[in-house]
Amino acid sequence: MGEINFFPDDLEVANQKIILRLDLNVPIKNKIIKDDTRISMCLPFIRRLIEKKAKIIIISHLGRPKGVRVPDLSLMPIYKYFKDKLKTNVFFFRGDFDEKTKEKFSYLKGGELILIENIRYFKEETEDDEDFSKKLGVLGDVYINDAFSCSHRKQASVHNIAKYVEKKFAGPLLKKEITAINLVIKNKKEPVTCIIGGSKISTKINIINNLLEKVNNLTIVGAMANNFFVYKNLKVGKSLVEKDTRKIIETIYKKAEKNNCKILIPQDCVVGVNFEGGGKNKNLNDINDDEIILDIGDKTIKSINEIINQSNTVLWNGPAGYFENDNFANGTLTIAENISKNTSNRSLISILGGGDTLAAVNKSKSKLSFSHLSTAGGAFLEFLEGKDLPGISVLK
Ligand code: 3PG
Ligand code: MG
Questions:
Q1: 230-238: long-range contacts (C-beta < 8 A, 24 or more apart)?
Q2: CA-CA distance, 140 to 91, in Å (whole number)?
Q3: What is the phi/psi pair of residue 271, to 5°?
């Protein structure tokens, strides 16, 4: 496999049409952007391309609309954000892709920008459809993928599109991400602790199984841990649980034993009767039928922090609780603050990844520092596993 083609900053792109795949998948509620980290990180490169007088065509997804024009998943708020932040003409394209699209885009002048509406409004996107990829590809002279966080997806605007544009590159954010993660992989010092949160264990099972061979401690938090509670016959009330995970968990425990990897699951938790209200710290045996587990409890936080204090490398993806409500953000924030402290005081190697993890950490009132903060979740974990990501392979 060859080397990744990184975008050379001195490349002459004046008046060339650049298709820029970004990950603008940010939390939006009632048309208001709740956390702009991912978008704001893209601004310097967009400004650079404007300066270079490129004709910029931006593609991104938002959520998972499954080929339907779900109004709540429109990129309109992000279009307004760009209009506000960028000193150039910004357009919004909400049409379909056909023979006339290219002509419509030909009115774009050097230094101007067009944002395409949520690409997942088209089912062909997630199907990595050849014809659709071609329709997208022919719109540009250059293709740049600067969306590391989507690069594990075999989807049209990340994968097959590359066949239909002559010049293709990885953008600066993607470069920064993989350089930083590679550096950590190379320098990682044992004990290595991996903290995994989020909700679906079935989507992360391969990653977990692979990590068991590479890390000394695996800590399970978030809704994912609920499946482990069920496995241990503990009551979880109305908490989110995935079906049929017994086998998966059994495999995880067996493999962990074989590889000498310690697994830690929460001992206590914070429960609520709904997502909006307050919480109560409870032992796992005491959860009522009408309660939902929404954060890890005090004893668990203490145990996780002890493990962090004894680790030399920490990798973390997925929040520990429903951090969107401040009452359930304590677990995630306390752990993040401890990782940050260890990173500053004794050079703990720390990488945090994932859109939610990022949004959660941003809620901290203190300024936190980590070895690397990745915008990617799934892609970050798959890259750590040593997998060849489809969106990166096509740039080689
Ligand atoms: C993410 O937030 O994880 C990325 O934007 C990728 O989104 P996806 O998991 O829906 O493919
Ligand atoms: Mg994701």
A1: 234/284, 234/285, 234/287, 235/284, 235/285, 235/287, 235/289, 236/287, 236/293, 237/271, 237/287, 237/288, 237/289, 237/290, 237/291, 237/292, 237/293, 238/289, 238/290, 238/291, 238/292
A2: 16
A3: -115, 155
CA distances from 93 to 101, 155, 205, 231 (A): 10, 20, 38, 49
Percentage of the chain exceeding pLDDT 70: 100
What does pTM read for this prediction? 0.88
DSSP for 8-47 reads: PTT---TT-EEEEE------EETTEES--HHHHHHHHHHH
Report which ligand 1 atom has the smallest distance to the Cα of 23.
Answer: 5
End-to-end CA distance of the chain: 7
How many whole angstroms separate alpha carbon 52 and alpha carbon 15? 9
Q: Is the CB of 391 under 6 A from ligand 1?
A: no
Spacing of C-alpha 31 from chain mean position: 21
Find out whether the beta carbon of 66 lies less than 6 Å from any atom of ligand 1.
no
Question: Which tokens is 266 given?
Answer: 């929460």
Closest among 43, 170, 20, 194 to 108, alpha carbons compared: 20
In a 13 Å sphere around the CA of 333, the CA atoms on its Cβ side amount to: 17
**Residue 25, ligand 1, Cβ within 6 A:** yes
Tens-digit pLDDT profile for residues 54-93 = 999 999 999 999 999 999 999 999 999 999 999 999 999 9
Is the omega angle on the peptide bond into residue 191 within 30 degrees of 0, that is, cis? yes
Pocket of ligand 1 contains residue 117 by CB under 6 Å: no
Give the dihedral sign, CA 24/27/32/36: negative
Tokens of 79: 């279009």
Mean pLDDT of 205-226: 92
- Residue in the structure block whose two tokens are 């080929």: 67
Summarize pLDDT for 5-47 with one digit per residue, the tens: 999 999 999 999 999 999 999 999 999 999 898 999 999 999 9
Q: Probe ligand 1: pick from 22, 23, 375, max atoms within 8 Å of CB?
A: 23
Residue 295 tokens read as: 């954060």
